[in-house]
Amino acid sequence: MAWLYLLLAGLFEVVWATAMKASEGFTHLIPSAITLIFMILSFILLAIAMKTLPLGTAYTLWVGIGAIGAFIIGVILFGESLNPYRIIAVALIISGATLLKVMSK
Fold first, then answer.
1. What is the pTM of this model?
2. Which residues are within 8 A (CB) of 39 and not within 5 positions of it... i.e. 6 or more apart?
3. Is the C-alpha dihedral spanning 45, 57, 2, 16 positive or negative?
4. Which of 1, 69, 80, 93 is within CB 3.0–4.6 Å of 14 for a Cys-Cys bond?
5. What confidence tens digit (pLDDT) does each residue in 40-50 have?
6. Where do the domains of the chain lie?
7. Which one, of 78, 100, 72, lies nearest residue 21 by Cα?
8. For the residues 89-100, what does the mean pLDDT come to?
9. Buried (b) or exposed (e) across 56-94, using 16+ Cβ within 10 A?
10. CA-based nearest residue to 99, from 49, 50, 51, 64
11. pLDDT tens across 23-76, in order?
12. Which candidate, 59, 7, 15, places its Cα nearest to that of 37?
C-alpha cells in the first residue's frame, strides 16, 4: 500500500506544480487554490508512505515522479523544448528511480 500512496503523492506533485505554473505567481485564484490543496495532499500521502518506506527511497521516488511528470506536462502543455540532452536527463532520473525501487526491501 505504501507504494500506491507514494505513486499518488508523486502524481499529486505534478498536479500542484502544473497549477502553480498556471497561477502565474499566485495571481489567479483557482490555480492557486489547486496548488495548495494538491500540495497538502501530496505531502500527506508522502508522509504515510514514509511510515514503511525508507526515507531516501520514498523522497527520491516522490521527487522523481514529480520531476518526470512536470517535464512531460511542460513539453505537452507549455511547449517546452524536447531535445536530446533533456531526454537523456529524464532517462537518468528514470534509471535512478527504478534502481532505488528494485533495491528497496
1. 0.87
2. 12, 13, 16
3. positive
4. 69
5. 999 999 999 99
6. 2-103
7. 78
8. 90
9. ebbebbbebbbbbbbbebbeeeeeeeeeeeeeeebeebe
10. 64
11. 999 999 999 999 999 999 999 999 999 999 999 889 999 999 999 999 999 999
12. 15
Dihedral sign from CA coordinates of 80, 86, 91, 96: negative
Q: Which residues contact 25 (CB under 8 A, 6 or more apart)?
A: none
Distance CA 85, CA 46 (A): 30
